[in-house]
Amino acid sequence: MNVIIGLINGMITGATPILLAALGGTMTYYAGIFNIAMEGMMLGGAFFAVLGSYYFESWVVGILFAILGSLLMALIFILFSVKLKTDEFVTGVALNLFALGATTYMLRQIFGVKGAFASPGIVPIPDIDIPLLEDIPVLGQILSGHNLLVYVGLIATILCHYLIYKTRFGLRLRAAGYNTNCLDTSGVRSDRIRTISVILCGIFCGLAGSFLSLGYVTLFSENMSAGKGWISLAAIILVNGNPWGIALISLIFGFSDGLGLLLQQYLPSQFTSMVPYIATLIALYVYSSRKKKEKFS
Amino acid sequence: MKTKFINGVLGIVIALMLGAIVMWIQGYAPFETYTALFNYSLGSFYSFTTMLRNSVPLILTGLSASVAFASGPVNLGQPGQFLMGALLATIGGLYLDLPPILMIPILILLAMLGGALWSGLAGLMRLWFKMDEFITTLMLNMIADFFTYWAISYPLFDKEAYSPMTPAINPNGWLPEFGNFNTNIIVMILAFIAVWFISKKTVAGYEWRIAGQNSLFARLGGCEIDKNYLKVMLLTGALAGLAGGLVVMAGPHRFLKGLGANYAWDGVMIAMVANNGILATLLYGLFFSILQTGALGMELITDVPREFIMVIQAVIVLVVVAGRGYFNILMDKIAVRRKAKEGLE
């Protein structure tokens, strides 16, 4: 029983950063931007989260800093890909590498360390116990006592769904991706919608980053996003950007993450660390074969 | 050609100036820092040859990305293919014992085979299951990273070492060195000529380029898209694998943890900034090597951490690529304005 509860909790924890980043990415997905910069935005967010939390001794400032750091990356993205019309793919790759270089550089300049910075001075984001719910035996253990951002992720999923499908902005957002000219001729500047979508993406990736460095663990290490931005991109593509679909896919990836940890008793850790990436390949295979069938039927 | 050159030089100068401003704000001396940087990569025979040696993996992974992007496949798997090439060359070097004249070519072939296997895997996933190579190659990168880490931690582990690494490979498989001039440069030049010849002078290269520009046109014109796709994936994987093998054979002569980390995305960056041109890839590869080799000197002389170069590289890519696009838009605008004027008169 405890193993199962542990696995479920591991699944939820592992899913959260991917969910948050993917919700951000889905905004740009609908706006018709090929955005691969989630990885860099997340990494920037993770670094600034530690910076804010350490110097102001507050996780709230940590989260705010994370959002600002990630927004900084988003602004660079907007400047190049929306304003200067640079290739989105090139901008994304360069931005990811910029984030990697800049955080490694600042890690050394500001904290004077190489590789990783951990300190008792970094204030982590607290876990939340939900009253009443926490007293229910098994359910309480599963649903209560998670990191604050886990619940934020859940609320964000609902909000995103509402925003994309039920509001005027959502309609314009989808129109920006579906038919830019149509949107422009109806008097809405598609560039502005795109800009807003990238800013939203930056906010979500900032949250995801702060979960990495203040929730999951309480430290910053070089390249700590470790491909999570790419996995979130895969999640978006697999469900065509539907927020609830993204939540489901994130849980599957979170499960593979937890499964990897569990398997560590039997396999060398190098193999168990591969599990999320293999899971992505399998998910992609299922998606592609389903799509192929649709085509022929 | 001329505008491209001007655009590249301008982009580099702007990026270096931006870097100088950042350094100046932090209280470093920008001019001394750049002098130290170029001194340590170009200043003497020793530093020049070191720079050439370091440029080999950059140029080869860059060529891999350039050829792939120009022909269509978005092969982002250079890091993984690099590692698998290095691993296979290391295994060959550990278990084979032949005279150098046989050993070196065999290890080179093994390295290319390792890279081609890994990219071929992604290619087959695309052809059989329609899985996008853009994501599969990325995932295979991570898998190769962990797999090689396991291989050097357990089966190939050097029992006398304190961190994960293999024993040194058979000295017969070491690339000969003259002074500080390593023959990996010669291998790279041969590979460069081969790639140039294939893409400029053969029918296959022509078909690839056309398929990269307009896949539908190529198919209607009678090119075998699938077969060409697989060929490109195999060739580009082999190039990245070769880069990995040469690093082992020229440098540490063993597979160390984090071997390919420095070259991970550099190939893709170089291809982007070079706009997938083959000669441009060579030149930008050399320039990135100047930056990376000189970074150490910069750190020694003026205390600017060498990680700063990673930032500069990304800025160069952004500025040059954005400049190229914007330059064209600007030119079009001027042309349109001139035409409008002529129309008025």
TrEMBL record, chain A:
The keyword Nucleotidyltransferase does not apply. Keywords: Cell membrane, Membrane, Transmembrane, Transmembrane helix. The chain crosses the membrane at residues 6-24, 36-56, 62-82, 89-107, 148-165, 196-218, 230-255, 267-287. It is found in: Cell membrane. It is a multi-pass membrane protein. GO terms for cellular component: plasma membrane. One of its GO terms (molecular function) is transmembrane transporter activity. It comes from the Bacteria. Pfam families: BPD_transp_2. The lineage of its organism: Bacteria, Bacillati, Chloroflexota, Anaerolineae, Anaerolineales. This is Putative ABC transporter permease protein. It comes from Anaerolinea thermophila.
From TrEMBL, chain B:
It is found in: Cell membrane. GO terms for cellular component: plasma membrane. GO terms for molecular function: transmembrane transporter activity. InterPro entries: ABC_transp_permease (IPR001851). The keyword Cell membrane applies. Keywords: Cell membrane, Membrane, Transmembrane, Transmembrane helix. It is a multi-pass membrane protein. The chain crosses the membrane at residues 5-25, 45-70, 104-125, 137-157, 181-199, 229-251, 263-287, 308-327. This is Putative ABC transporter permease protein.
